[in-house]
Amino acid sequence: MKYRDYVKQEMAVIKDRDPAIKSDKEVYLYPSFKAILKYRKAHKLYLKGEYYKARKISQKTARQTGIEIHPGAQIGEGLFIDHGHGVVIGETAIIGNNVTLYQGVTLGGTGKEQGKRHPTLGDNIMVGAGAKILGSVTIGDNCKIGAGSVVLKDVPANSTVVGVPGRVVIQDSVRLFDDLDQIHLPDPVMQDIENLKQENARLKKRLAHLENSVNESRSSYDDN
Fold this sequence. Notes:
The chain is of the alpha/beta class. It has 4 helices and 15 strands. A 6-stranded mixed β-sheet has the order 3-6-9-12-14-15. Helix 1 runs antiparallel to helix 2 (31-47).
């Protein structure tokens, strides 16, 4: 794909996914727009073995935008990084098509692996603000990673993950591509607490029933 085609593509992606944009010119102000285009240039240099030049571009872009994308990462079409500050994408990360990352997202390593040490993300994925996906894990297509989650294990396709560590709370549900809601997600901890409260209420009710039965039996025995 030619550079001007990448420009048109990124403009279309931003206008499609950010409701805050009011005019076409605003696209040029987005950190995501600059960071991804500079990544495309750096990645070509990286593939040619010009590692210093590639890293120089990526580090300069990181200082300008707050988005650090290693030139060795493999990124498909339609990536959108909303706001972007604090986003880190590691060298061996692989990102599919139509992925949305919010600010503070890390696609990083664990510090213990060699070779493929960063995550692989499929297509049509949303990663909420502050989420961390660490190590050589795979996130299947059509997944949503809730804000603040820490994902350390593979996630099957069509899943929603929340929590620390990340837990799959929805799987194989119908997912619309334009569903970018990163906060209205299930809360597994509160659900567990609610289940315990309900179970505790049932046990109290049963205990009260047993106590009444015992008292009635005693009363009947005393009368005799």
